[in-house]
Amino acid sequence: MWLPVPCGGKKATEGCTTAESSLRKGYGNEPEGNGWLTDLSQVRQLKPLTDDRGLQDAFRQAKRAAKGQFAAWLKATSGQAVDPDTIFDCQVKRIHEYKRQLLNALRIVVLYNRLRQHPDLAMTPRTFFFAGKAAPAYHLAKLIIKFLNNLAGTIDGDPAVRERLKVVFLPEYGVSLAERLIPASDVSNQISTAGYEASGTSNMKFMMNGALTIGTRDGATIEMAQEAGEEHFFLFGLTAQQVADSRGWYSPYWHYEHEPETRAALDLIFSDHFSRYEPGVFTPLRDALLTHGDHYRHLADLTSYLEADQRLIKLYANPDAWARQAILNVAGSGKFSSDRTIAEYAADIWQVKPCPVA
Question: Who has the most CB within 10 Å: 30, 184, 213, 243?
Fold first, then answer.
């Protein structure tokens, strides 16, 4: 697991992740120190300090600084301009149907539709970041990437919504990009179909850096929610058991016929609204979602996803409450240190003892 390196320089927050900046300052009766860098369990010391206004302010300042640095870097390297005062909503995953970047895209289409139909609708401005790679022969994954980029272009070209929604697909995802993007993220999407994600590590990295998780009860997100408290996550969707139990009778057409926003989003996509110069190019997405049975339950979870999204936006409107919840997530992330994992392997499986270095 990647962990941030110690930060130096004249300012405590300069070049630091959100968690680093807050821990370095020292609050209440806790001493300032760097012990947490080699013993991540020490971040739990933040838990009794979550209501401290000074810590909340410092946390927000560090997050805003990270967002500003990322926006400046993105502009300098790609020419793309993003507003650091919008919500940075991220999904960083290998592109795959079960990881459901397409579900995230459907959420954005619904939000886009809401603004088209109700231009005066109050909606917190948001920037949606996607990053990840697809297997060379995985045609549908490549088509999902194309759809994300077409969605981005359509929104950018619509003056009625482009100041309120923005979609950015970040190419060439790797550690260097992660070091910039993860500390800048407000929201982490961990939305794989329940029962399909073996574990996951990117979700832990976002948690450690103060992003709040919107996600399904799948993979390591289950353990993360246990550590920080489910009430501090935005969980939604079917459980793994419900996914398994519905195999014999699930029909995506039920959601298409009975959920107006789902139907409107799909109709807009398949009317070539996002592919005006390539009509029919997204027909395979229709086949995956409707004709072939929506194996990964995109449509089954879409309404629940949108409801969790509304809870998230409501919390974001209260900066103190958002900061408190983000700090609680950081405080609950210590268990996920790779040092702890290796120590347990050493003791329980390899049965080797530490060899201190003088």
Answer: 184
